[in-house]
Design a protein that fits this description.
heterodimer; A: mainly alpha; 4 helices; B: 261 residues; mainly alpha; Cytochrome C3; 27% helix; globular
Chain lengths: 108, 261
């Protein structure tokens, strides 16, 4: 009993503390990594219909592109290539929404 | 006699023009060929020969130039072996795992390789090497329809279903909504010997989507905002970004100036 509540128990508490710090962090990292890609896919998967969107919808998509940019920029050096490719893809996607917005405004 | 000469003169001029332009018709095999030599010579390997005719039969322009991220200008992407091994650019498909038409796509580059595997390097690093390519132009294009200047008629090949280019690459592409193509429109020709250009959004968007052309190549859709000139197009602007390089030659006037004058 003393053994359970003694040193091993302290060890368990320490482990629990470490886990509580590390595991949620790991979970967040994995989630965050998927998160920006999911957002990219959602936002940039709609370029085909951009000209059918309203001015407000296009403005919202542009704002979402702008919010996404710093998140991709933050990718660490191990993802430098992915960062480069996706920043370029995001730029093309954002530019197209801006182009569609300009076209809409001109039409009005 | 003089009258006969004058009657034949337009015909002779036409024939002369045909011979002159015939010399400019692109060789179907080397049309769209890109030589990648940014790093290969320094690494002690032959430059890479990239054949557009092979890749465009399998993938849309958008898949490679937008989703995978290849620049539209030759040599601008600065591809190297390390990047390919990370699974980007050529390595996005050439990873030794992905398959196409039931065949595994060979891996692009490797840090370590056996003597036997060196042959694989030569499948791409084949500049000035004879007989190292596994897929030859003549064999590959045998079933593809031929158009003007004996070049492959890609448009017809797509329409007839001879080719079915992929537009989605798992893990890389975005799942796009169904395209709502804009209507075709005409661009007025200022020359009296060439009819107006009929531009098909549908045909172009099928290969390129929207964001590959707008606003990078065409910044405005307002009628009359952009003044096109054949001189600028021949210098690689607007239509010339693709046409005469990969898409059909600019010498095939009637492909765009479709109606008779």
């Amino acid at each position: 009993m003393r053994r359970f509540f003694g040193r091993p128990c302290s060890l368990m508490l320490v482990l629990q503390f470490v886990c509580s710090l590390v595991l949620p962090g790991l979970g967040n990292t994995a989630f965050a990594s998927d998160d920006w890609k999911n957002e990219f896919n959602t936002v940039c998967g709609q370029t085909q219909n951009a000209l059918a969107f309203s001015v407000d919808e296009l403005k919202d998509l542009i704002a979402r592109c702008d919010e996404l940019k710093p998140r991709i920029k933050k990718l660490d050096d191990s993802q430098a290539t992915e960062r480069k490719v996706f920043l370029q893809r995001l730029k093309m996607c954002r530019d197209f929404y801006a182009f569609a917005l300009g076209t809409k405004v001109d039409q009005q | 006699m003089v009258r006969k000469v004058f009657t034949l003169l337009p015909l002779l001029l036409c024939l002369q023009a045909m011979f002159v332009t015939a010399g400019n018709f692109p060789d179907p095999q080397s049309f769209g060929l890109v030589i990648l030599k940014n790093y290969s010579p320094r690494a002690g390997v032959a430059p890479v020969i990239f054949d557009h005719w092979l890749h465009r039969s399998l993938f849309t322009c958008r898949l490679c130039h937008l989703d995978v991220g290849f620049a539209m200008e030759a040599g601008e992407t600065k591809i190297n072996a390390a990047l390919n091994m990370q699974g980007v650019y050529c390595g996005a498909c050439h990873d030794g795992k992905k398959t196409i038409g039931g065949k595994t796509i060979f891996a692009a580059c490797a840090e370590q390789f056996s003597e036997e595997e060196v042959k694989r390097c030569a499948r791409c690093h084949s500049w000035k090497k004879q007989g190292v390519r596994e897929i030859t132009f003549d064999a590959f294009t045998k079933k593809l329809p031929v158009g003007l200047g004996k070049n492959i008629d890609w448009e017809k090949a797509g329409e007839e279903g001879v080719i079915k280019p992929l537009d989605f690459l798992e893990g890389i592409s975005v799942q796009y909504d169904t395209l709502q193509a804009q209507q075709d429109f005409s661009i007025a020709s200022e020359a009296d010997w060439a009819s107006d250009v009929i531009f098909s959004h549908k045909k172009h968007a099928l290969w390129n989507g929207c964001a590959l052309c707008h606003p990078g190549i065409y910044a405005s859709t307002k009628a009359g905002t952009v003044k096109y000139s054949m001189l600028q197009i021949f210098e690689g602007e607007s239509c010339g970004v693709c046409h005469d390089k990969v898409a059909f030659s600019l010498f095939f006037c009637q492909k765009c100036h479709r109606n008779p004058v």
